[in-house]
Amino acid sequence: MAIGVMLADPGVDTVAITTTFGNVDVQQAAQNTLELLALAGRPDVPVAAGATHPIGREFDGGAPQVHGGNGIGGISLPAASRPLEPTAAAETIVRLAREHQGRLHIVATGPLSNLAAALELDPELPGLVEHVTVMGGAAAAPGNVSPVAEANIWNDPIAAAAVFAAAWPMTMVGLDVTMRHLFTEPDREALLAAPGAVPRAIGEMLDVYFAFYEPILGFRGSALHDPLAMAIATGAVTMALAPTVRVEIDATEGPGRGQTIVDLRGKYSGYPEQSGAHCRVALQMADPFAPVLRETLLRLP
User: Fold this and answer.
1) Using CA atoms, how far apart are residues 7 and 4, in angstroms rounded to an integer?
2) CA torsion angle 32 300 214 238 (round to 10)
3) How many other CB atoms sit within 10 Å of the CB of residue 32?
4) What is the 3-state secondary structure (H, E, C) of 133-184?
5) Is the dihedral of CA 284, 170, 85, 69 positive or negative?
6) Nearest to 110 by CA among 51, 44, 182, 43
7) What are phi and psi of 155, to 5 degrees?
């Protein structure tokens, strides 16, 4: 859905997609991306595979219960004939940041391992990138893999700590907003009935995701984590409340592992400027997102 939001916007020049481990392994994620781009008629978008495991740990096999064993709800997409980029994700990010200096907007919708590796490769990277939008974290909301941690941050907290500490402008789109904007069965049925192959495929993929969320939400539906982050990055939707505050990551192995420690102490005085803060944190959206997403995905081929 996040890729769909990006491809549907004529004002966005998609220069690459990189993949990492998460709910599935990095190679499965890359293959899914190639196949989805082929289905959308966008073989021009390069795809680079990246990190295979978090820093200091082994990949735990992912979470097949969330999106199915293949990461796309168990459905099959037409095979993609083209290969991955010859360079890995971190190298690709650094190269593109230099080619598009001051204009590259990175939208990270998984563990932040690729970005951390890119920072290690090129310490000047924060000065080259226009903005980084991260789907991850929770400011005042509960976590979804622990009482305090969101999955993307928890999956590689050491990488996340490096990315949030880097001096680039950031937007954190966390569970505070993504769990409040949901797709339901009428949305899925609209996608299944669409003339385009891409929205129909997304509708089919959502069957497993809705089943995963049913015991959490009490009905068949899903949160809109990644597509909301992408829509904020592209400017398709507006945040009603997003203070710029200090954010740190708990990278320890204790009960706080993966927590985004967000300094919201300015809440009662209108969020005055904080010294050293460079991360906007989405707390409220201006309007419901689901109708916007539905119409966006229905425009896909």
Assistant:
1) 5
2) 110
3) 21
4) EEECCCCCCCCCCCCCECHHHHHCHHHHHHHHHCCCCEEEECHHHHCCCEEE
5) negative
6) 51
7) -65, -25
Q: How far is CA 146 from CA 38, 53, 134, 138, 280, in A?
A: 37, 20, 19, 11, 23
* Rounded Cα–Cα distance for residues 239 and 262 (Å): 17
From CA 147, how far away is CA 163, in angstroms rounded?
Answer: 22
Per-10-residue mean pLDDT for the chain, 301 residues long? 98 98 97 98 97 97 96 96 96 98 98 98 98 98 98 98 98 98 98 98 98 98 98 98 98 97 98 97 98 98 96
Domains present along the chain, CATH in parentheses: 1-298 (3.90.245.10)
Alpha carbon distances (Å) from 291 to 190, 209, 282 = 11, 19, 19
Nearest to 284 by CA among 253, 242, 234: 242
Report the alpha-carbon distance of residue 50 to residue 47 in Å, rounded.
10
Three-state SS annotation for 115-126: HHHHHHHCCCHH
- Predicted TM-score (pTM) of the model is 0.97
Predicted confidence at residue 293, as pLDDT, reads: 98
Q: 202 near 75, Cβ under 8 Å?
A: no
User: Which residues belong to the active site?
Assistant: 225
User: What 3-state class would DSSP assign to 71?
Assistant: coil
Task: Spell 65-90 as b/e; 16+ CB within 10 A means b.
Answer: ebbbebbbbeeebeebeeebbeebbb
Structure tokens at 198: 């891409």
Q: Shortest CA distance to 225 belongs to which of 147, 293, 164, 295?
A: 293
pLDDT reported for residue 132:
99
Rg (CA), the chain: 18
User: Bridge partners of 170?
Assistant: 132, 279
